[in-house]
Write a structure and sequence with these properties.
The protein is mainly alpha-helical and about 550 residues long. It has a single domain, classed as Amino acid/polyamine transporter I (Up-down Bundle), CATH 1.20.1740. The protein contains 22 helices and 2 strands. Strands 1-2 form a two-stranded antiparallel ribbon. The radius of gyration is 22 Å and the shape is globular.
């Protein structure tokens, strides 16, 4: 199969989803109102609540939600064949992710920009809110701890990426000042910022940077993790316009250009997809396609983490409610395109079927390495960049995606802790500095406490990330559905995907529960039980509230 055909069909379907389906959802289901006064204006404070140009906000939202997961998940899931991964990414983006992301922003905007967990308290009840926020905190803990480990590994493996990755922070700070303080033209600021980023990508291979093997007893991996969390703590406390917004915006433009280079290379090189459409000879130990496909590919099809970003930072910056369609739904389209690129790199960037089978010799193989190496081969053959620069470009893409997600994730952890401070009257948690230190402390405790001095403990919790993340997406859709029912709006466009997600993720959690028991992994077994119990209780309370709303609606219609 030609990779060009796969790319055109996938991108074409997503484009139709945006221009047709998202328009219907925005106008008929969410009924976005351009005259509604958004929280960004109502509570404007110059730090978290900032009315923002929709293109800049799209950059923040897209790069915050598109971490390493839409690269890793699809590049692992192709072990079952490229067709199942392709179908889930494309259909999931159109009918699941876009609706979920836009819906979470809308729900938060209509509730004073509070997180989806806090919104649950008003929509469903206080008990459901408390349980839901436990799941939310665990997802954020997983994201931040694991992404720090992943980024550290990439910086060690590809030292040529260090200059452009950290240089992007300096560029973002300058862009923020140019846009908000100096009021310079956005187009010229964007062009200069992107040129500066790509100049560093070209310079990177000439000045590779590696940290010492040991500093204060910490190995290289641990040193990078500490530096990343120090940076994340500082970044999460700065006003969003100073670093978070401009970094995400300029990264979003640069990353879309990187995707453009990859897709252009596919058009020029016309590589063949060497992986089987459906793999009937999966390696021993590979779990069943159903339900594991739908949790292995989370980000890139639908992800609960998106709901946290949508209701945590994005909703506080929406200038007009009608911007939600572009920022939320089109942000999901951008991530779907990244996931599709990951599938193509991992299946068409490998020379032969035998090479591909050698790479995918066990479940969990592939991942970022397959994306970087396969994508670099396609770019080198397509636009003629050297293999080293191509690999640096794709590594920087992966790290910047993961880094911006980590920035936002730590800020979201602070929001959650501060919300807990408000809910339970814990005055010390209301303080932003204290909440940030607690957030960082829990991530560091997981990374080092569970894994030792190398900081690999963050990966300990990873097997549960996919299922917990998808479970969170289903619960978010459930809350949105209850809100729609209360307003007398159509519910089937959120009810259908949430039902599918809950069935698949709870099935996956049960399968994992058995695996953890057999392997004697008691930590993950207990954590799995906590997540499963909390999710089931939230789902039952939400379903009861939804049923009540639907009965009341039918009663009103009967009387009429």
């Amino acid at each position: 199969m030609s990779a060009i055909v796969v790319a055109i069909v996938g991108i074409g379907a997503m484009a139709l989803g945006y221009f047709i389906y998202s328009k219907f959802i925005a106008e008929k289901v969410f009924q976005l109102d351009p005259n509604f006064r958004t929280p960004a204006h109502e509570f404007e404070d110059g730090v978290d609540f900032v009315p923002t140009n929709r293109y800049i906000l799209w950059g923040h939202h897209f790069t915050s939600v598109a971490g390493a997961a839409p690269i890793v998940g699809p590049a692992i899931a192709v072990i079952w064949g490229w067709v199942p991964a392709f179908l889930w990414v494309v259909l999931g983006t159109i009918f699941f992710a876009g609706v979920h992301d836009a819906g979470a922003i809308w729900a938060s905007v209509r509730n004073r920009a509070r997180s989806i967990g806090a919104v649950t308290g008003d929509v469903v009840g206080a008990r459901a809110r408390s349980l839901f926020m436990i799941v939310i905190f665990l997802v954020l803990l997983m994201v931040n701890a694991v992404f720090a480990v992943v980024i550290a590994g990439l910086l060690i493996q590809f030292p040529s990426s260090v200059v452009p990755v950290w240089g992007a922070i300096l560029v973002a700070l300058i862009v923020g000042q140019a846009i908000y303080r100096l009021k310079l033209n956005l187009l010229w600021v964007t062009i200069i910022g992107v040129v500066a980023l790509y100049a560093m990508v070209i310079i990177g291979p000439s000045v590779p940077i590696s940290l010492p093997e040991k500093v204060l007893g910490l190995p290289t991996n641990a040193q990078w993790i500490v530096l990343l969390f120090v940076y994340a703590a500082i970044a999460s406390m700065l006003p969003v316009w100073m670093l978070l917004q401009p970094r995400d915006y300029i990264n979003g433009i640069q990353l879309f250009i990187g995707l453009g280079i990859l897709y252009l290379s596919i058009l020029i090189a016309n590589p063949t997809v060497v992986a089987p459409a459906f793999n009937a000879n999966v390696p021993e130990g590979t779990p069943s396609l159903i339900p594991l496909l739908f949790v292995t590919i989370a980000c890139g099809a639908i992800s609960g983490f998106h709901g946290l970003v949508s209701s945590g930072t994005t909703s506080k910056q929406i200038n007009k409610e009608t911007d939600i369609r572009f920022v939320g739904y089109f942000g999901a389209i951008g991530e779907g395109m990244l996931a599709l690129a990951s599938i193509l790199a991992a299946t068409a960037g490998i020379a032969t079927l035998a090479d591909w089978q050698g790479l995918y010799s066990k479940f969990g193989a592939g991942g970022v390495g397959a994306f970087v190496n396969g994508g670099a081969a396609i770019v080198a053959n397509g636009v003629g960049l050297s293999s080293e620069i191509s690999a640096t470009l794709l590594t920087v893409m992966a790290v910047l995606f993961a880094g911006t997600t980590m920035d936002t994730g730590v800020r979201l952890q602070r929001y959650i802790l501060q919300e807990w401070g408000e809910i339970y009257n814990l005055s010390f948690l209301k303080n932003g500095m204290v909440a940030t230190l607690v957030a960082i402390g829990t991530c560091v405790a997981l990374a080092f406490g569970a894994g030792g001095l190398d900081g690999s403990g963050g990966l300990l919790i990873w097997p549960l990330f996919g299922t917990t993340n998808q479970l969170l997406a289903g619960l978010t859709l459930l809350v949105i559905t209850v809100m729609l029912a209360r307003l007398g709006r159509p519910v089937w466009y959120t009810l259908a995907p949430l039902t599918f997600l809950l069935v698949m993720t709870i099935s996956a959690l049960l399968i994992q529960l058995g695996g953890f028991y057999k392997s004697g992994n008691w930590f993950l077994l207990v954590l799995d039980l906590i997540i499963l119990a909390a999710a089931i209780l939230v789902a039952l309370e939400s379903a009861s509230t939804l049923a009540k709303q639907l009965r009341e609606k039918r009663g009103v219609e009967t009387q009429a």
